[in-house]
Amino acid sequence: MRERLDLSIALSDNERTRPVIDGAIGVEGVRLHTTVVHPSEMFWRQLKYADFDVSEMSMSSLLIAASHGDFRWVAIPVFTQRMFFHTRILVRGDRGIKVPADLRGKRVAVPEYQQTSAIWSRGILQNEFGVNQRDIEWFMERTPDMSHGGSTGFKPPDGVKLNQIPASTNIGEMMVKGELDATLLYLTNTNLVDRSSIDLNREASVQPLFADGAAEGRRYYAKTGIYPINHTMVMRRELYEKHPWIPLNVFSAFLNAKEKGVRDARKLLSPWFEVGALGPDAAKGFRADPLAYGVRAARPVLETIAQFVHEQGLTSRRVAVEEVFAKSTLDV
Questions:
Q1: All domains of the chain in start order, with CATH
Q2: Taking the model in full, what pTM does it have?
Q3: pLDDT by residue (tens digit) across 127-152?
Q4: Backbone angles phi and psi of 103, in degrees to 5
């Protein structure tokens, strides 16, 4: 039997990763030792301790690290999470916030300022609704030692007022008490990094900014063609330099897992409905896969998040896609 390379891998659990987690899909030439962990914790562990050979990674943190000369990680164009993140903004119903413009001058929370979902939301608020990040007073839940930014040298961008939420409380508690007007994102999943636990969906005082989030997602996609990417896969650069065949083998395995992981027809087609490519709002019928892997298929989305990261003052320059992805994956 041909000898296989032993690699540790960290993954979040969803339909597209589960076949790899369960061992139904393997990586050619590799024996995987898998850890299932929430992304918030996974990224913190990778950025601070480099715990795993291969893992999912925050797109924004990868770009920010690269802009500072930290190239420990090589990206593989497997995108395990996409979402219209701005449709997840929650607001207090008693603060007169009816449209995005009403967020100006308000106290708005975010688990972490540099997290990819927050960058997508702020970029869309600015480019679609004219709301600049400097129009808002921000409150961040994660402490420096438990944040992704603690490992990438995060500093608040010039002109941005950013407050640290005390360790004695959290976003959920502050929203319920009325100490915040809104939150850009809300996470209650148990992990070592996030600490909110209240179910805000049960709070009558809290409601979505976009009453019909699905319709807003379809509107944004119809206008821009962008279905935001949150995570990509990465591997250690030193491992890549020694074994340059790994990225395409990992890519092939996850492509196979994506195709086989979703067996329920409704779940299989849900991304097409989310972007409006199917259903009553579809203008052009069955379009290209909105969850497509690969640099070529996702380049417009990747270049948009790189631009948003730079526009928001989190990188001193716009990091190019070619700087972070394995050379062998640029044509897939």
A1: 5-83+227-329 (3.40.190.10), 85-222 (3.40.190.10)
A2: 0.92
A3: 999 999 999 999 999 999 999 999 99
A4: -75, -15
